[in-house]
Amino acid sequence: MTDGTETDRLPRIAVLLGAGASCDAGIPTSIAMTDAILENVAHYPIVHRLLDFIRFTLAADVAARGTGEVVDVERLFAAVELLIDRRDQPWSPFVSTWVQGLESFATDNRSQPVSRDLSGLDKAVESAGNYQPPGRGVSRFNLHGIYAPSKVVGDAIEKALRLSRNPDVGSQLKLARTVMLTSLFEILHITDTDRVAYLSPLVDLAEEQGSLTVATLNYDRSVEILAGERGVGFETGIDRWLARRRLRWEQEQPLRLLKLHGSIDWAIDDRVEAGKLPMAGIKKLDPDKPSDASERPAIVFGEAGKLRAEGPYLELLLAWSQQLEEADVLLAVGYSFRDPHVNEILARWFNAVEGRRVIVLDPSHPTPGPRFVQQLARLNPHIPDDQPQPFSVVSNTAKEGLAVAINIARGTWKPETADAR
Description:
Elements: H1 5-9, E1 13-17, H2 30-40, H3 45-65, H4 73-84, H5 121-129, H6 147-164, H7 170-188, H8 200-209, E2 212-216, H9 222-230, E3 234-235, H10 238-244, E4 255-259, E5 262-269, E6 281-284, E7 297-299, H11 313-324, E8 329-333, H12 340-352, E9 357-361, H13 371-379, E10 391-394, H14 398-410
Parallel strand pairs: 1-2, 1-8, 2-4, 3-4, 8-9, 9-10
Antiparallel strand pairs: 5-6, 5-7
Helix pairs in contact: 2-7, 3-4, 3-7, 4-7, 5-6
């Protein structure tokens, strides 16, 4: 950490990590992760076939619309979540027929006979009618005993009605979701600290600035592992949130990490505390225990609904918005600019103060890219060449280009020498 005047004159940098920031740690991209998950669930044939069916159905729809989009793991998860609750959606009555073939994955129990459920009915009726209270010589009908045969009849009728309905694929879809999340835990688990060494420039920047805010959309623990290996203090705020359901910071640490979409070591906790109203619970897992892979991670996964009221997500987003106000430059690493709620905060920050800049580090940055990126690029021609440009792209991986991108953000490196445009 330095305290000279040179650091004071440098622009203050904040960092946003997208999926591309974790590629060099061996974490698949959102597209490759779909293949990895399908490979991991091969030992569940019904789940594998169901996910393949959903994936190819989505791919056919994308191809028919000619949008040029791809079916990544986000879209696959979103489709599974939507299909699980498809009957409960307000627009469900307007969908006359769901995709042909989806219900074929359902387990059809309609062939099960109901007659065997009535096998005990005669005995139950006989037992109720022939009941004789102790000490009496005359048999009389026991009205209380009629409960037994009526329950048998009721259960049998209920089962008959249930089996008369069309089979539902809901249970298979829920199983698919569980298996996918378990597979995701395995894919994101990092054991070798050398895999995250390429992110060291972030720790260096935190020490040079005195503190650094890093917002991440990823679920892995690459930054936490790096900070622990380097002996640099960091905080996510989740421990205090778990204790008080409020996002508070213990103390000022060099590295403040905001996991906007959750973390693989957070899990959903459905327990309801006595004397309190039910609310979405989260608990912290030990990331090094394989048994924790059976827990359902508390992560925001899917193309829609990423802005959630339950859990710490809204407060994390607000905290990032507040922290971002202290920055002059945002360095976005491997972010595709496809999350509207994230882009909205970026736009408010950028428009609030003249001279703020956005640096993108991405080897495959889309051209022309989303509308948000196109608008950013249009700002550059209005700025003289001898002044820092509002928007720069460093066409490189995080492993090869992170230090260069940070220097460009500082203004100490010319973009043209860094293969930036």
